[in-house]
Amino acid sequence: MLALLLKRFGSLVLTLLAVSAVIFAVMSVLPGDPAAIMLGTSASADTLEALRRELGLDQPMILRYFSWLGGVLTGDLGNSYTYGVPVAGLMADRLMVTIPLALMAIVISIAIAIPLGVLSAARRNSLFDHVAGFFSQLFIAVPAFWVALILILVFSISLGWFPSGGFSGWSAGFFKGLGALLLPAIALGLPQAGVLTRVARSSVLEVLNEDFVRTARAKGLTRSAALWRHAVRNALVPVATILGLQFTFLVAGAVLIENVFSLPGLGQLAYKALTQRDIIVMQDVVLFFAGLVIIVNFLVDLSYLLLDPRLRSGSR
């Protein structure tokens, strides 16, 4: 088991290094001059050259890459070209919105999908199964931004229960912050709940046909006990895989929802950095998203060891 963990961790580190090189190379060849965007088209050539030297843009690409990578490893993400402040501080402020938003969305997705998927599998081809299948397909088909607009029209404009956008900060009150993030979290979580419901249903149906479930029933366990004690636990491995992918999608895919609700999150920061050609912010944000995907997948691999005892014993 220790050898497996070390192997997975080494693969994680190598993947992060490779991803950082790809991100830096892509950002470096994007069209446009950050200095010209910052100073405007009327700036003189000498002024542009001086700003390029100040930003380090006159150095060879390989030197700029290792300088950036060294800063990332030491916690120095550089300074934003647009705002003139450390990128680490900008990202930390935005993460206080994006991470709670993603966590709330994944909780909503799990709370809807797991019961629907398990009960649909237990009542296969029943009316409940058909209704749950309809709603799961509906959640998958409807875009998140459209759900967001409908939620704003109903719960913000018509009923006035929740704010239609903006975030006053956690200092204004914990429950007030949750209220501002609830509608965006529902808009993000419903499409993911549709996907997770289908995966949970298929996985539970597959496990219900296994011999050990029939053996448990033959030993006297009720259908409900065999379902929840044996089938559901063994069906969680593919569900855990989808959950890992969903969390990273929710964090990275919050760009559109954060702009719909005017939330000062990491997605909105990435969008503004792209429009303002703030390369250093773009590099750091994209690296964070990519690193988050890799790390969450690593944690999902670790969860397999808890869910499947055969992996802990080293058997195939």
UniProtKB/TrEMBL annotation:
Assigned keywords, A-Z: Cell membrane, Membrane, Transmembrane, Transmembrane helix, Transport
Name this protein carries in UniProt: Peptide/nickel transport system permease protein
Segments crossing the lipid bilayer: 12-30, 99-122, 134-162, 174-196, 235-257, 285-307
Organism lineage string: Bacteria, Pseudomonadati, Pseudomonadota, Alphaproteobacteria, Hyphomicrobiales
Membrane topology classification: Multi-pass membrane protein
Statement: the UniProt record of this protein carries the keyword Cell membrane: yes
Organism: Rhizobium halophytocola
Pfam families reported for this sequence: BPD_transp_1 (PF00528), BPD_transp_1_N (PF19300)
Gene3D superfamilies: MetI-like
